[in-house]
Amino acid sequence: MPKATLPRVHPALETFTVFLRLGLTSFGGPTAHVGIFRREIVLRRRWMREEEFADTAALCQFLPGPTSSQLGFAIGLRRAGPAGGLAAWLGFTAPSALALGIAGVALAGAGAIAGAGWLAGLRAFAVAVVANALIGMVRTLAPTRMHVALVAVLLAALLAAGAASLPAWMAAAAQPLAIGVGAACGAFALGARAPAQEPAAADPDDTEARARAFHVPRALSVLAAMGFLGSVALAMLAVGAPPILQAAAACTRAGALVFGGGHVVLPLVQEPFAANGWLPAGTVLSAYALAQAVPGPLFTMVAYLGAAMQVQAGPIAAAAGAALLVAAIFLPGLLAVIAVLPAWHRLRAVPGMRAALAGANCAVIAVLGAALVRDVAPAGIRDAGSACIAGACMVLLAAPLGLRGGSGAGIPVLAIAAAAAAAGALILG
Fold first, then answer.
1. Domain residues of the chain, as ranges?
2. Over pLDDT 90: what percentage of the chain?
3. Most buried by CB count within 10 Å: which residue of 37, 200, 308, 414?
């Protein structure tokens, strides 16, 4: 009798399930998300090579919008086309959007969450995730002293820019500028030292993956570029519309203007809500504090705001308000990815671009390092207890990962995150 075989899961469905699990386990903000994605997509599942992942992360750092969500969307595009991109975004976004929408209806407890011990444990876990990712990326993407020197110079420049009292627009431009400088330095200084971009011959399924990698039809790319510009233009014309539509327009403008990840979105969202009196003072800060306590992208904080704005009209209206603001704030960034990815993929294949991409990869390491030093570590390590939790998480994250044959499975990220939360509740609460 022929051996029975299990039916193959559709790539888009597989992508959805993987990113749904990431949406349930990715604590710590956009920088930590990049580390978690790398662990799952590059090391565990081998869906992308290290260099390709870093190149895509560099592109998402360059574009306006939510970096980690754009990176997940791009990974989904690579794995299963447009359906895969949508599946990745939905799986990664839905858990936190649902949780924050429910919290926006309840409007309870958000003020007390910021000081909770379990949340402090999750912040310490985020420090370990980012540090673990940096160590791995330095090993693979900075193989020579020249690469390491470029990382060090860019890291020092980013830290100096963060310490200076720069205008908001200059601070927001620091990360994409660093990646541009890194690419230019790579093109002139790294040359033949750039890591090879060709896949290993033994990499399974690589022929199929390369055939559909970032396959976005040119017409769809043009439509996405027009959609990006059109959505921003429409958002400028929302004066006089109902408050929930004005709020959606404000979220669209924020999603089109944010560089540097989810933390930068707070002032862009808070200002129009405070100026127009759509919600009581402090509600945006409560939404932001609560978004720190759930996994997934920080941009889903607007689900809380949309539900809170519409709660008086009933649960259906609250759900619709949350969904509207979430779609509005994510749409520009996702359209930007679709518009730019085809050209980016073609540029990656040009031999002369390899050194530039190697420099951009060094800049990505520097960007993550600056975020770790300036934002993630100070927020996650505030005393000896949180330092011990972060160190323990580093050890657990370094456990052997599953190999292609399925042996030696590492400790699940969800288990480590839960242990960190429990330790924080016991030690730091």
1. 11-191+215-427
2. 25
3. 308
pLDDT for res 202:
39
What is the maximum alpha-carbon separation in the chain? 74
Pull the structure tokens for residue 171. 């601070």
DSSP one-letter string for 161-204:
HHHS---HHHHHHHHHHHHHHHHHHIIIIIGGGSPP-SPPTT-T
Residues 6+ apart with CB under 8 A from 290: 100, 103, 110, 113, 301, 304
Digit-coded pLDDT (tens) for 290-343: 777 788 898 998 999 999 999 888 889 999 999 999 999 999 999 999 998 877
d(C-alpha 358, C-alpha 363), whole Å: 9
Question: What tokens appear for 307 in the block?
Answer: 């539900």
As a whole number of Å, the end-to-end CA separation of the chain is 61
Q: What is the pTM of this model?
A: 0.70
Q: State the Cα–Cα distance between residues 407 and 76, nearest whole angstrom.
A: 26
What b/e string do you get for 148-169 counting C-beta neighbours within 10 Å, with b at 16 or more? Answer: eebbebbbebbeebeeeeeeee
Contacts (Cβ under 8 Å, ≥6 apart) of 49:
42, 199, 203
Q: Pull the structure tokens for residue 51.
A: 């260099």
CA atoms of 63 and 231, how far apart (whole Å): 16
Percent share of the chain, pLDDT over 70: 80
Buried b (16+ CB within 10 A) or exposed e, 64-94: bbbbbbbbbbbbbbbbbbbbbbbbbbbbbbb
